[in-house]
Amino acid sequence: MRGLLLTVLVLANIATALLIVRNRHEHRQAFVALTRLEKARDTLNIEFGRLQLEQATWAESNRVDQVARVQLGMVFPRTEDTVVLRR
Fold first, then answer.
1. Cβ-count burial of 39 within 10 angstroms (0-12 exposed, 13-18 middle, 19+ buried)?
2. Is the C or the N end of the chain the one with fewer CB within 10 Å?
3. What is the 3-state secondary structure (H, E, C) of the chain?
């Protein structure tokens, strides 16, 4: 009886140790995946900041005005060309 109890306790101890090893391994894998994802997030945040800066540059009013004048040949209407409609 005593030998059976000792065997059960030893087997339970070994099973617990194996479960701890498995859990630590899974934890390490999850941590590596988390680190990889954080690095990808940081890279994407940097790229997003660059794209926001580029968008702000392209949308700047002086640039839009220059493109309208040079490429599209647009000009501001003269006062005499302006018509006001009233009801």
1. exposed
2. C
3. CHHHHHHHHHHHHHHHHHHHHHHHHHHHHHHHHHHHHHHHHHHHHHHHHHHHHHHHHHCCHHHHHHHHHHCCCCCCCCHHHCCCCCC
* 24-73: pLDDT as tens digits: 999 999 999 999 999 999 999 999 999 999 999 888 888 888 888 999 99
- Residue in 35, 39, 63, 31 with CA at minimum distance from that of residue 47: 39
- Give me 15's structure tokens: 């099973």
Whole-model pTM: value is 0.59
Indicate the Cα dihedral angle 15, 18, 22, 25, nearest 10°.
160
